[in-house]
Write a structure and sequence with these properties.
The protein is mainly alpha-helical. The protein is built from 22 helices and no strands. The chain has a domain of 76 residues. The chain is elongated, with a radius of gyration of 26 Å.
Length: 347
């Protein structure tokens, strides 16, 4: 009987590296894969990738996928190109295998790996999206949090719940505001997940959010009907109730346009640079008047980053938004120059 199958030629022993390498070109996919698996255990690290990476492009999909994943687990970043290709156009089972491999090998926070997971988090199949969000929780806050905002405002409550769990897994102060905003989500499963996630975060900021009586009263009021949410969003900004800022960061994506407008308008009254990422997302709102409110809010923030976001809006498809973007850009730029935050030159 042969080394790997009855159809393959048997090397003299399993330590016959040259014979094993020859089997990587065998006509039988199982033989090629078995040779690969054996060599993976035997080759020194400095030779491993160059000798085995040929199977990443194997004509047999199972062989190719297994080789890409196994080499990635050994530290070979060249597998990521294959992962990207499969996430874009592969089959469901293939995508799930890749996502789980990325989740289990997240120690180095590879930005290319994170980008692949974010592509997967927008997949047409909910199963893939949920798996990707779960995997993102294994990466650090700095490269993930901003990009989870879209999922937190998905129409699908399962996606929102998965995004909340991912933030809970990250478990740093950077996620607390987003989780506190999720406390007023319209679905009880999301609210429950947000509360549980905050309870598991060992930080003063998380404990303060749940223990702050004023904040929890705001949560209750913002969880009521549309008119009350709209009125409360307005009041939070007018009275500058800072505890309510995470809540209006959530309601600026509310299902009702009137609530989104009041929430976005109130965000501008805080002039908080931490809200820039949220306001940038609001600039994607389908209604032009909501986008204009986002520009007016950004205009109030003394930040070069806010100026850069406003500049992008000059390309908006709506003429009213373009006009406001030009005005807001000039207003903020002039103020930044006077405050010497920005040099008097083209940025």
């Amino acid at each position: 009987m042969g080394f790997f199958s009855s159809n393959s030629k048997e090397p003299e022993n399993e330590n016959d590296i040259d014979s094993l390498l020859n089997l990587l070109n065998h006509k039988n996919p199982s033989t090629r894969l078995n040779a690969f698996t054996t060599l993976l255990k035997k080759l020194p690290d400095e030779e491993l990738y160059d000798r085995l990476k040929i199977l990443i492009d194997d004509p047999d999909k199972d062989v190719s996928l297994t080789a890409a994943i196994d080499l990635f687990e050994k530290g070979y970043k060249g597998s990521l190109e294959k992962f990207h290709s499969i996430i874009v156009q592969g089959k469901l089972k293939e995508k799930i295998k890749i996502i789980r491999a990325l989740a289990e090998n997240s120690e180095n926070d590879n930005i290319d790996a994170v980008n692949i997971l974010f592509i997967a988090s927008n997949d047409r199949k909910v199963t893939v999206r949920l798996e990707a969000l779960k995997a993102l929780g294994n990466y650090t806050a700095g490269i993930v949090v901003k990009r989870l905002i879209d999922s937190l405002n998905s129409d699908n409550f399962q996606i929102r719940t998965a995004a909340v769990h991912a933030l809970g897994q990250i478990g740093t102060d950077l996620v607390v505001d987003l989780l506190t905003g999720a406390l007023i989500d319209k679905h009880p499963a999301v609210r429950k997940a947000a509360k549980e996630s905050l309870e598991t975060i060992d930080s003063d900021m998380a404990r303060e959010a749940l223990g702050n009586r004023t904040f929890m009263q705001l949560v209750k009021r913002m969880s009521e009907d549309t008119m009350k949410r709209q009125k409360m969003a307005q009041e939070i900004g007018r009275k500058e109730i800072y505890e309510g800022l995470p809540l209006i960061c959530k309601t600026c994506f509310d299902e009702y346009k009137s609530v989104r407008i009041e929430s976005t308008r109130s965000m501008g009254l805080f002039r908080d640079p931490e809200t820039i990422d949220i306001l940038e997302k609001v600039l994607d709102d389908k209604y032009y008047d909501v986008r204009i409110e986002a520009l007016l809010a950004l205009e109030k923030i003394n930040s070069i980053k806010a100026l850069e976001v406003i500049e992008k809006a000059k390309n908006d498809k709506n003429s009213n938004v373009k006009e406001q973007a030009d005005k807001s850009y000039m207003t903020l730029r002039s103020r930044l120059e006077k405050k010497k935050i920005l040099k008097n030159e083209k940025t």
